[in-house]
C-alpha cells in the first residue's frame, strides 16, 4: 500500500569644562561626546512544523546610528549591542524560549550574523558575546549608520508542542547599548554604561500538521488449481499529528470507491490479461464488517494527535481467487484529513 500524501545653563557650562579637560589628555576613553541609538525589527517564525523541520529559521535587522557629538576632536568608538533572555525567558539563555497561550514552551536561539555565535550580553556567564562594532575616525558632528542581521532558529528535536501562537518580548533591560570612545586609539572594551535600548519581539506560529506512512498489504500467493476464498491480509498505518489535532484517516482505492472496495489489476505477467481481482478494506477485524473508505464520519477512522506516531491496522479480504494465474496490484491512497 503506498501513500500520498516571526538643560540648563549650568549643565552647558559643565559640559564645556569636561571637553576642555579631555583636550589636555588625548586618548581618554569615555562615552561623553559620542552617542548611539538603535532599533531592531521583529522576528517572526511563520507556519512552524516541528515534525517536518519546516519554518525553523527567521531573521531580524538591527539598524544603528552613532554620532560624534563633540565639536573639535575626531573619535574612535567600540559599541556593544547586548540581548538578554527576554520578558518571557525566565532566566533561560541557551536555549531561549517563547511562551504560548497555554504556557507551552517553544525553544529557540538568536545568533549573530555568522549564524553560529549566540547573540548574548556583556558579563553573562551563559551567553557572554554581545555584538561589537568598531568605528574609527568619526569626525565632530559626523554620524555613522549601519545594519546588523540577527539570525534566529527554533530548536530541532524538542518535545511535540500543540499548535498556537508563541512570543517573547525583549523590552526594558533585555537589550542594552554600551560604548566607549577615545581620541587616539580604539577602546579595548565597550565600557559599563547602558547607553540605550533596542526593544523587539520574537513570535512564532505553530500550525497543525500531520504525517502519514503505511506498510503494504500483501495477500500472498495462491496455488492453482485450488481456488481459495476469503483470502485475508493486513497493513499498518502510522499517523503523526501535532498534539491536540483531530483527524480522520480515509482510504482511497485507485477506482475511487468511497467504501474501500478496490480492484487489483494484472502487472502484465500474462499478455492481454484483463482480469480484475476485487478486495475490500476494513477498519476493524473483518468479522465486524466495518468497511474502511473515504466517507468522513461514516466509514473513516478518527483520532487526535499526540505529536508521536500512532499506529492503526487496516484489514483486507479477497473474496475469490478464481482469476487467471498472474500477479495483481492496486495502489491505495491513505489521506489524513485534519
Q: How many E strands?
A: 20
Number of domains: 2
> Beta-sheet strand percentage?
35-45%
What structural class results from the helix and strand content? mainly beta
What is the string of SSEs from the N terminus onward?
A: HEEEEEEEEEEEEEEEEEEEE
The CATH topology of the largest domain corresponds to Immunoglobulin-like
Topology:
Layout: H1 9-23, E1 34-40, E2 43-48, E3 57-68, E4 75-83, E5 96-100, E6 105-111, E7 131-138, E8 143-154, E9 164-170, E10 175-182, E11 200-206, E12 210-214, E13 229-241, E14 246-252, E15 261-266, E16 276-282, E17 301-304, E18 310-320, E19 328-329, E20 333-337
Parallel strand pairs: 2-11
Antiparallel strand pairs: 1-3, 3-8, 4-7, 4-10, 5-6, 5-9, 6-8, 9-11, 12-13, 13-18, 14-17, 14-20, 15-16, 15-19, 16-18
Amino acid at each position: 500500500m503506498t501513500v500520498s500524501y516571526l538643560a540648563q545653563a549650568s549643565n552647558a557650562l559643565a559640559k564645556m569644562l569636561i571637553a576642555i579637560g579631555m583636550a589636555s589628555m588625548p586618548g581618554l576613553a569615555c562615552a561623553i561626546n559620542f552617542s548611539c541609538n538603535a532599533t531592531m525589527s521583529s522576528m517572526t517564525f511563520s507556519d512552524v512544523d516541528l515534525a517536518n523541520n519546516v519554518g525553523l529559521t527567521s531573521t531580524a535587522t538591527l539598524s544603528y546610528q552613532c554620532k560624534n557629538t563633540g565639536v573639535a576632536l575626531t573619535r574612535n568608538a567600540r559599541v556593544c549591542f547586548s540581548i538578554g533572555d527576554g520578558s518571557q525567558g525566565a532566566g533561560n539563555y541557551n536555549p531561549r524560549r517563547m511562551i504560548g497561550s497555554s504556557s507551552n514552551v517553544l525553544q529557540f536561539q538568536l545568533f549573530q550574523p555568522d549564524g553560529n555565535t549566540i547573540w548574548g550580553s556583556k558579563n553573562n556567564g551563559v551567553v557572554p558575546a554581545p555584538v561589537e562594532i568598531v568605528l574609527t575616525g568619526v569626525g565632530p558632528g559626523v554620524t555613522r549608520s549601519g545594519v546588523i542581521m540577527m539570525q534566529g532558529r527554533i530548536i530541532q528535536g524538542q518535545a511535540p508542542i500543540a499548535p498556537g501562537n508563541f512570543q517573547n518580548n525583549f523590552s526594558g533591560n533585555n537589550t542594552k547599548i554600551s560604548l566607549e570612545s577615545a581620541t587616539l586609539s580604539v577602546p579595548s572594551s565597550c565600557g559599563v554604561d547602558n547607553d540605550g535600548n533596542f526593544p523587539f519581539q520574537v513570535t512564532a506560529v505553530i500550525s497543525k500538521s500531520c504525517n502519514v506512512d503505511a506498510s503494504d498489504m500483501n495477500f500472498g500467493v495462491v496455488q492453482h488449481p485450488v481456488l481459495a476464498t476469503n483470502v485475508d491480509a493486513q497493513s499498518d498505518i502510522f499517523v503523526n499529528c501535532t498534539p491536540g489535532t483531530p483527524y480522520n484517516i480515509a482510504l482511497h482505492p485507485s477506482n475511487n470507491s468511497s467504501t474501500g472496495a478496490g480492484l487489483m489489476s494484472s502487472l502484465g505477467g500474462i499478455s492481454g490479461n484483463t482480469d480484475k481481482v476485487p478486495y475490500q478494506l476494513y477498519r476493524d477485524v473483518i468479522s465486524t464488517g466495518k468497511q474502511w473508505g473515504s466517507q468522513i464520519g461514516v466509514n473513516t477512522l478518527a483520532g487526535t494527535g499526540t505529536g508521536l506516531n500512532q499506529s492503526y491496522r487496516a484489514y483486507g479480504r479477497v473474496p475469490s481467487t478464481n482469476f487467471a494465474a498472474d500477479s495483481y496490484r492496486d495502489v491505495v491512497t491513505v489521506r489524513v484529513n485534519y
